[in-house]
């Protein structure tokens, strides 16, 4: 099997399991994003691939080759670590050249390869500068160039855009996607930012507390999350989670009742409601089917292209991103009717986080 294969990998530190039986494949020549909150285990997983840590169990393969048989320094994997720690006393050229010097490459080759990487990352004009003379974004480009220098079939990038302002991140995201295509390489890219993950990913892996809770096409993970934690972790503004309980063939929530078929799921259920699934209704109109009710507008955040509206209902604050024409004239404190069509809602067994089979989820 080509690409990166992670099979049944577990890792503990001092008896505390930080990766629990992780399996996935990054197909060759694709960009796969590993997304998860801080401490999920993303860095540890990438460090296992490059050989900075050793797994307790499981196998890691690249293009069919078991990585444990290859010395860490010889693995054909480029690595952009999270803390890119450039040497402050070395020029940009020497920082990028450092791994090649360690490999005792010939001076001519070093110059050629550094120039090549600098051209790709558009930092040629910075080569003579010291890190202290660079902006945050420029430092990041230098770190990426250094990671890309290796003749590698795969690259792992650990949250390479963390801490940059949004505009720069957007630009670098596009550049990294182009760069991957130019290199024709396999990328595994870790981030804790779910919007970055959705923007970057061909394929999306969601890691939560050392467990893989989603693995699939980014769009599918967003619209039909395979686990409650994936619904909660992917998307901004955050997904609303409505507590419910099974009563016969129904899931009863404080906003109404949904049909739920018999399954192995427990009686405590959670309904995931994306902010854009909440519809504000014109005055006097009541929801016909699905969930809904009357809420007081708690807060309106204008994000430019869209507005986030916080709706207070007894015991619950819902986050909504209504259609633009629905919010015209809306004011804080006002009462509004809202509806949540049931057809697109995902429902989960609260105890396990797994989909409550069938139900209203797609
Ligand atoms: N060498 C180590 N010794 C002990 N614990 C470690 C070690 N490396 C990582 N951990 C622990 O493993 C867990 C996962 O860490 P990891 O750095 O992989 O998280 P992460 O998902 O990359 O988070 P972040 O987004 O904050 O970088 C954390 O609880 C961390 O403290």
TrEMBL record:
SMART domains (UniProt xref): AAA
GO MF, any single term: ATP binding
Domain ABC transporter residue range list: 4-234
Residue stretches in coiled coil: none
InterPro entries hit by this protein: AAA+_ATPase, ABC_transporter-like_ATP-bd, ABC_transporter-like_CS, ABC_transpr_FbpC, ABC_transpr_MalK/UgpC-like, Mo/tungstate-bd_C_term_dom, NA-bd_OB-fold, P-loop_NTPase
Keyword Transport: yes
Keywords from the UniProt entry: ATP-binding, Cell membrane, Membrane, Nucleotide-binding, Translocase, Transport
Gene3D superfamilies: 2.40.50.100, Nucleic acid-binding proteins, P-loop containing nucleotide triphosphate hydrolases
Annotated CDD domains: ABC_Carb_Solutes_like (cd03259)
Keyword NAD: no
Domain of life: Bacteria
Pfam families: ABC_tran, TOBE_2
Segments traversing the membrane: none
Family the entry assigns: Belongs to the ABC transporter superfamily.
Name used for this protein in its record: ABC transporter ATP-binding protein
